[in-house]
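Intended use. Records like the one below are meant for learning the mapping from a protein sequence to its folded structure. Do not use them to infer anything beyond what is encoded.
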Amino acid sequence: MTKLAKHIFLLLLVLCVGNAFGQMGPYRMGPPRPSYYNRPNNQNPERRVESVKINFLRARLNLSPEQASKFFPLYQEYQQELFNVRKLKRLNNLNAADGQEQVNKELMYENEIVQIKIKFNNAFLKVLPPDKVSELYKSEREFNDELVRQLSERNNRPGPPQ
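Structure written out for the chain above:
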């Protein structure tokens, strides 16, 4: 009986120690593993995506330094105005009690987005030739499609986020 008790005790000891070392956390032994959330480029993912988008557009549009210095501040303003209206549009969906009021606000926000696009299209045409403005809109769509494709692939991949 004592031999069986020793084997059971040894088995429990091995299982407990193995379990303890298998835990993640601040008390885990060994060098710290790099964490996805602690990497410096993931501090602000929106800003990172925006910088990748700017570089993508810069490469696709092939702008001269003079054109780029005039265009990109204008483009940043365009993006900010669209972001503000889209944010208001999302908030409208959260707090509108009356259905008709919500639909009216939705149409109003869509109209504001169209007005912003018209305003900045005219401003872009003052800085860039029409073929480059057309390429801008095409490149924006391609960038957004590629971003969605990569994010969906990343979400479908098993394991921790990369």
